[in-house]
Amino acid sequence: MTQNKRAKPAKKIPLAVLIAICALPVVLAGLFYVLRTDSGTMDQVEMTISKPFRSLLGMLTSIYPFSITEILIAATIVWLIYYLIKTAMATVHRRGKCKILLRRLLPVVVAAAYIWCLFCWLWSPGYYASGFADKNGFAGGSVTTENLAVVTRFFADKASEHSRLADRDEGGRIIYDRRAMFAGSVNIYRNAALLFPSLEGNLYRPKQMLFSWLMSRTGYTGMYFALTGEVNINTDPPGFHLPSTIAHEHAHQLGVFAEDEANFVSVLACVTSGNPVFEYAGYYDGLMHLLNALAFDDAESYAEIRASLPEEVMNDWRENHEFWQAQRRVETGIGFIDNILTSLTATVSDTVDTIYDGYLKSQNQVLGIRSYGACVDLLVEYFFDAT
Q1: Is residue 136 domain-shared with residue 124, that is, in the same domain?
Q2: Residue 229: left (phi > 0), alpha (psi -120 to 50), or beta?
Q3: Which one of 57, 65, 68, 330 is CB 3.0 to 4.6 Å from 341, fit for a cystine?
Q4: What count of other Cβ atoms lies within 10 Å of the Cβ of residue 177?
Q5: Strands 230-233 and 207-208, bridge-based pairing
Q6: 206 and 350: one domain?
Q7: For the whole model, what pTM was predicted?
Q8: Which residue, 78, 101, 128, sits at the end of a domain?
Q9: How many domains is the chain built from?
Q10: Does residue 8 sit within a domain?
Q11: Closest by CA position to 233, among listed 244, 218, 245
């Protein structure tokens, strides 16, 4: 006769272990918040922990031609929706709903805590460590309107010159090979690193975003994701602007954290790259930042410099403006639907801006998203001697 064997009960995780698992990310994140006020400690953390790990992650993910970042984000969203629906169904018509709900939501909260903890140690230290300007002896401070106008004219002349050197199609749009641009971008900091050794480091080929259309709708051109070490690029905007976007995200990959410094560094890398397409993008991008500042300080000089720009530059300016204006409109041909979707698109874009602005301010970037344009002081300080 065979005896019935009872199934062994599943082993439960000891309470102490469970508490330790839940508490670990909170403790580590808390430790970061305690230490972040000491810039010397953050310098050490960035150089010995954060940067090496990000570089390793970038090397590993570079094996794949597609964006691991996008896959992780998409998979997380799909799983989260599925899990929350399943949780709602599990609590319906059952006793102890609160207990079941807490039990099912705990893993989500703990997972989120671990992700935030990783961000704290892999990315955030750079916001509190010595910045690019500090490392390289930039004086900082406000610039004079006269110097701003001089440097703006310099960039206008250079952008005008390089706009005529670039190959264009019959419609006047710059011709470029995206694949070659992506592959060649890993070397664009070679000359900039000779000027500023802090820019030395390994760069890995950027990834084209499959959801570029979504990035365009929210108004963003690229993203560096510390947890994969990847540079992710929105390829929908006009191609002439693509090199400076790539250079900006590569600046983050090299450990330039502040957005104003990343913008300055990307301009510097482009204009010293020796690549005509990158050079034009750098001078054009720098010119736009400088003109925006000059318009407030010296409207007469702004109008004069803008009027001096050749047709090629103005066509690129209009193309870029029209593209981003179109991203805030939805045109299906059905009036009320267009109005609803256009309003929704604007709301989503503004919400994303608000969230990102809050994130930057929480990471020691007092200007928030306005810091993107704050590179003007660095541009004037560095390039004034070249004029």
Answers
A1: no
A2: left
A3: 330
A4: 11
A5: parallel
A6: yes
A7: 0.87
A8: 128
A9: 2
A10: no
A11: 245
Mark whether 236 and 211 lie in a shared domain. yes
| 304 within domain boundaries | yes
Q: Structural domain of residue 88, as residue ranges?
A: 15-128
Residue 54 within any structural domain of the chain: yes
Q: Residue 369: what pLDDT?
A: 42
Which amino acid appears at position 353 of this protein?
A: D
Specify the residue for token string 């309107």.
145
Same structural domain for residues 152 and 54?
A: no
- For the record, the structure tokens of 367 come out as 């200007």
pLDDT tens-digit map of 261-273: 999 999 999 999 9
Q: Which of 109, 128, 147 is the last residue of a domain?
A: 128
Phi-psi region at 184: left, alpha or beta (left = phi > 0; alpha = psi -120 to 50): alpha
Residue 192 tokens read as: 């900039």
Q: Kindly state the average pLDDT of the residues 310-330.
A: 88
* In-domain check, residue 3: no
Closest by CA position to 198, among listed 139, 254, 116, 267: 254
Contact call for residues 224 and 231 (beta carbons, < 8 A): yes
CA distance 3 to 84: 42
> Per the structure block, which two tokens stand in for 10?
């599943």
Across the chain, the runs of DSSP E, i.e. the strands, are 207-208, 222-225, 230-233
Q: How far apart are CA 335 and CA 331, in angstroms?
A: 8
Co-location of 223 and 339 in the same domain: yes
Residue 54 pLDDT > 80, yes or no?
yes
Task: Quote the pLDDT of residue 189.
Answer: 96
pLDDT tens per residue, range 99-135: 878 888 888 999 999 999 999 999 999 999 988 988 8
Task: Report which secondary-structure segment, H or E, holds 349.
Answer: helix 335-362
Single-letter residue type at 236 = D
Given a contact cutoff of 8 angstroms between Cβ atoms, the answer to whether 216 and 236 are in contact is yes
Query: Do 153 and 73 fall within a single domain?
Result: no
Q: Which residue has the tokens 């397409």?
A: 277
Q: Among candidates 318, 319, 326, which has minimal Cα distance to 213?
A: 326
* Distance set, CA 165 to CA 249, 292, 346 (Å): 25, 25, 37
Helix (H) or strand (E) holding 165: helix 145-165
